[in-house]
Q: What sequence folds into this?
């Protein structure tokens, strides 16, 4: 099986000390991060909220993956991922979310992004490292590679 492609993560879309009043606030912050890096237009954010109202994007292990609906595909300029870490946690329909990985994709690209994210989230060590990350470089490395520390990260 081929290695997954690196996720399209702009370091500017990684916020590690966020706080949110509730899950809608957390989702809006993810959407704004995607807007800020030019991946989506503002209307995409509302469809992220719509998606959450129809089905929870909580995936377990303290992680949620908010994303828009098919109706918003025209509002997506390029595939992108954002990562927001909420050290205080966010109530997500009775679950506690610490990390939101927001995604946006053109066409059916979200399927590939979700597949690549699943590979990362199935690794308990990588999920733990993602929840505990305090540096943008750690998150970028975790999501763009096999998750093994580089030599400079271990020194």
A:
């Amino acid at each position: 099986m081929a290695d997954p492609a690196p996720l399209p993560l702009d370091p500017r879309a990684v916020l590690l000390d966020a706080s949110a009043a509730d899950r809608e606030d957390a989702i809006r912050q993810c959407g704004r991060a995607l807007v800020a890096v030019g991946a989506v237009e503002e209307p995409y954010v509302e469809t992220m909220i719509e998606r959450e109202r129809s089905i929870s994007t909580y995936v377990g292990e303290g992680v949620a993956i908010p994303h828009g609906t098919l109706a918003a595909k025209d509002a997506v300029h390029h595939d992108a991922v954002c990562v927001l870490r909420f050290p205080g946690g966010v109530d997500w329909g009775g679950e506690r979310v610490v990390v939101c990985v927001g995604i946006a994709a053109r066409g059916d690209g979200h399927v590939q992004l979700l597949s690549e994210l699943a590979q990362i989230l199935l690794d308990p060590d990588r999920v733990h490292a993602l929840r505990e990350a305090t540096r943008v470089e750690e998150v970028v490395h975790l999501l763009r590679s096999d998750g093994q520390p580089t030599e400079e990260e271990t020194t």
About this structure: Residues 148-155 have pLDDT under 50 and may be disordered. The helical segments are 23-36, 43-54, 109-121, 124-132, 136-144, 151-154.
